[in-house]
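Lab notebook, bench 4. The sequencing result for the construct came back, and we need a structural model before the next group meeting so we can plan mutations. Quick request posted to the team channel:

Model the 3D structure of this chain.
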Amino acid sequence: MMPQAPTSPAPIRVLVADDQALIRRGMAMLLDAAPDIQVVGQAADGLEAVQLAQQLRPDVVLMDLHMPRKSGALATREITASLPQTRVMVLTTFDSDELVFDAVRAGAQAYLLKDASEDEVVETVRAVHRGESRLTPQVARKVMDQFRLLASRLNERRDEASSPAPPQPTAQPAAQAAAPLPGQDPLTEREAAVLELLAKGQSNRQIAVALHLAEGTVKNHVSRIMQKLHANTRTELAVLVLGRKPAP
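Done. Here's the predicted structure in token form:
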């Protein structure tokens, strides 16, 4: 009996969404030229992007932000909510604070500007498919600045919550004391280790190997960390860690 030839891994299935036909087709040609990537569809606006994503179930959606009928951020939110296995990477001309934060909170795993190199775009598709997060330096700085501010406010609230309560004018049962503020549940030592590796862009599988854990255990840790830090995506967790470190 002849030995079976090894099978090649399935290509990364990509949907390209951009209202500019020239850019959309150019990106499709660029990605299709990669041996491990297959463009399965093209969308000319946000509404079509959602419809095609639900129909085609791609691995990665390359998403513009300024599009007619439905913005890229709204399309990203709908796609990530209904298709948890589909990851979205933003490729846009704009890097305004509002657009960046909208995209990250909507669930985008990566945010690139259209002046990125061809190799950077292709490699980011692969990285996002592996579960990693990527941000261009100028976008990362904006997000880190915002999360530094959020982290500072959270620390202030923690300090207020841990300070001694003022004496009560009348007797009051302990159950009627002020309830703890959101975000007060600290990370365990293991969760902190998982978060540190996640912030370095490592996938669940890589974290599992590094910490000698089952991949399912890592997923559970990541979910719990998201709950504790009120983050919606791995990208938010990564930039939150960076935001807590002293600015250079």
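The beta strands are 12-17, 37-43, 60-63, 87-92, 110-113, 134-135.
Will bring this to the meeting.
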